[in-house]
Design brief:
Order of helices and strands: EEEEEHE
Largest sheet: 6 strands, antiparallel
Number of helices: 1
Shape: globular
Length: about 80
C-alpha cells in the first residue's frame, strides 16, 4: 500500500510504501529530500520532501498529485 501525508504546518510531504519501520535507514538525497531505505533489501521504502509547497510550486511540469493531509492509495 502506498501512503502519503502532507503536514501543512511544517510544509513537509511524506511518502511511504507500507508502514515505516524503526529499522529503516534515512539518508539525505540532497535539495531537501530524505530517503528511507530498507537495510535488508536496500530498496527505497519512502521519502520525505522538506519545503514541499515551494518545491511543487517551482516544478516546471507540476506534480501528479495535490498536497492533502492523510491519504492512502492502493497500488
Amino acid at each position: 500500500m502506498l501512503k502519503y501525508f502532507y503536514d501543512k504546518e511544517a510544509d513537509i510531504f511524506y511518502f511511504s510504501q507500507g508502514t515505516p519501520s524503526a529499522f529503516d535507514q534515512t539518508i539525505e538525497a540532497g535539495d531537501d529530500v530524505l530517503l528511507r531505505i530498507s537495510p535488508r533489501t536496500k530498496r527505497v521504502r519512502g521519502f520525505t520532501l522538506l519545503n514541499a509547497s515551494r518545491k511543487t510550486r517551482n516544478a516546471p511540469t507540476g506534480v501528479p498529485f495535490t498536497l492533502v493531509p492523510n491519504v492512502s492509495v492502493r497500488a
